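Subgroup meeting minutes
Present: P.N., E.W., G.H.
Scribe: E.W.

1. P.N. recapped why we're keeping a running log of single-chain structure predictions: easier to compare across weeks, and new members can see raw inputs and outputs side by side.
2. G.H. added today's entry (64 aa).
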Amino acid sequence: MARAMFEYTKTILKKVSFDADLFYKELTKAIERLLPYEIDELKIWLQKFTANKPELYTYLAIVN
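Output recorded in log:
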């Protein structure tokens, strides 16, 4: 079940990445709901996902 939540989180973050404020909201929700090891995986995924999206760089600090 936990893995499904991680995959769902990635899907949602991809869909809302067009709006930085909405991305921030969904990212904070994800951090509250995910397990600690999933948050570590999310950090790695976010670094790759935001490589070409400089408007989202500032929100990476939330996960660290």
